Amino acid sequence: MTSKRIAVIGAGVSGLTSIKCCLDEGLEPVCFERSDDIGGLWRFQENPEEGRASIYKSVIINTSKEMMCFSDYPIPDHFPNFMHNSQVLEYFRMYAKAFDLVKYIRFKTAVCSVKKRPDFSTSGQWEVVTECEGEKEMNVFDGVMVCTGHHTNAHLPLGSFPGIEKFKGQYFHSRDYKNPDSFTGKRVIVIGIGNSGGDLAVEISHTAKQVFLSTRRGAWILNRVGDQGYPFDMLFNSRLTHLFSKIVGQSLANTYMERRMNQRFDHKMYGLKPKHRAKDIALKK
């Protein structure tokens, strides 16, 4: 019986694991990667590429290696609990080499279109048009796995900032940020208190004259390292914590967690206490 051919779009973390899963299931994967290398989001470059996610030079992952590693390929013991982006990419390269995944990837090949074949109702097949070095090619696949990520396009809602057209300073999205050197001696405002906003505010503060961090609703701040030096996500996602939440109920579990976070610093005193409960936002992620 002929193996079913599967198109995998993108050779980042999801693309690599999709290739591996296809091989495990006896399928024939063909991965299309528009750039010349694997890694997707985690491959740092000084100049952002159009159509590809971009990170800043100092990015350290906020998920511990114990929680993020692939079940069939543990992260080496000598890697830190929370890895720099270069180490995350190194791990992906090790994974790809261990399972010989690169030979299934067609680099510098962009996917132009994906559409159902005329007989899709009976065949379930797709027509995938790709372009490599100016030449287009159409192939038929039995399935398509879209692994293009969701951090490619910057969201810069300038309409929400009346008068921005008269602003004489510089403004841009964190996608275009690479290092703090250009902010030396300047007054800077970072809008948003997500992971990137927090990272950039801290890093820029080392060179800037003054840094403001703007948040519209506050946030519960968690540090990577938890009790006794264990990664926080390992403690938070244990069977014990889930059992505790079920026994005492969501409200008491929220109260306990918020009290623990306020022991580190009082969120209300710093104007950071949000209206939502601590575990409410965690459950939505």
From TrEMBL:
<dbReference type="GO" id="GO:0005789">
    <property type="term" value="C:endoplasmic reticulum membrane"/>
</dbReference>
<dbReference type="GO" id="GO:0016174">
    <property type="term" value="F:NAD(P)H oxidase H2O2-forming activity"/>
</dbReference>
<keyword id="KW-0472">Membrane</keyword>
<dbReference type="InterPro" id="IPR002257">
    <property type="entry name" value="Flavin_mOase_5"/>
</dbReference>
<keyword id="KW-0503">Monooxygenase</keyword>
<keyword id="KW-0443">Lipid metabolism</keyword>
<keyword id="KW-1133">Transmembrane helix</keyword>
<dbReference type="InterPro" id="IPR020946">
    <property type="entry name" value="Flavin_mOase-like"/>
</dbReference>
<dbReference type="GO" id="GO:0004499">
    <property type="term" value="F:N,N-dimethylaniline monooxygenase activity"/>
</dbReference>
<keyword id="KW-0488">Methylation</keyword>
<dbReference type="InterPro" id="IPR036188">
    <property type="entry name" value="FAD/NAD-bd_sf"/>
</dbReference>
<keyword id="KW-0492">Microsome</keyword>
<keyword id="KW-0256">Endoplasmic reticulum</keyword>
<dbReference type="GO" id="GO:0050660">
    <property type="term" value="F:flavin adenine dinucleotide binding"/>
</dbReference>
<dbReference type="GO" id="GO:0006629">
    <property type="term" value="P:lipid metabolic process"/>
</dbReference>
<keyword id="KW-0274">FAD</keyword>
<dbReference type="InterPro" id="IPR000960">
    <property type="entry name" value="Flavin_mOase"/>
</dbReference>
<keyword id="KW-0560">Oxidoreductase</keyword>
<keyword id="KW-0812">Transmembrane</keyword>
<keyword id="KW-0521">NADP</keyword>
<keyword id="KW-0597">Phosphoprotein</keyword>
<protein>
    <recommendedName>
        <fullName>Flavin-containing monooxygenase</fullName>
        <ecNumber>1.-.-.-</ecNumber>
    </recommendedName>
</protein>
<dbReference type="InterPro" id="IPR050346">
    <property type="entry name" value="FMO-like"/>
</dbReference>
<dbReference type="GO" id="GO:0050661">
    <property type="term" value="F:NADP binding"/>
</dbReference>
<keyword id="KW-0285">Flavoprotein</keyword>
<comment type="similarity">
    <text>Belongs to the FMO family.</text>
</comment>
<comment type="function">
    <text>Acts as a Baeyer-Villiger monooxygenase on a broad range of substrates. Catalyzes the insertion of an oxygen atom into a carbon-carbon bond adjacent to a carbonyl, which converts ketones to esters. Active on diverse carbonyl compounds, whereas soft nucleophiles are mostly non- or poorly reactive. In contrast with other forms of FMO it is non- or poorly active on 'classical' substrates such as drugs, pesticides, and dietary components containing soft nucleophilic heteroatoms. Able to oxidize drug molecules bearing a carbonyl group on an aliphatic chain, such as nabumetone and pentoxifylline.</text>
</comment>
<dbReference type="GO" id="GO:0034899">
    <property type="term" value="F:trimethylamine monooxygenase activity"/>
</dbReference>
<comment type="function">
    <text>Broad spectrum monooxygenase that catalyzes the oxygenation of a wide variety of nitrogen- and sulfur-containing compounds including xenobiotics. Catalyzes the S-oxygenation of hypotaurine to produce taurine, an organic osmolyte involved in cell volume regulation as well as a variety of cytoprotective and developmental processes.</text>
</comment>
<dbReference type="Pfam" id="PF00743">
    <property type="entry name" value="FMO-like"/>
</dbReference>
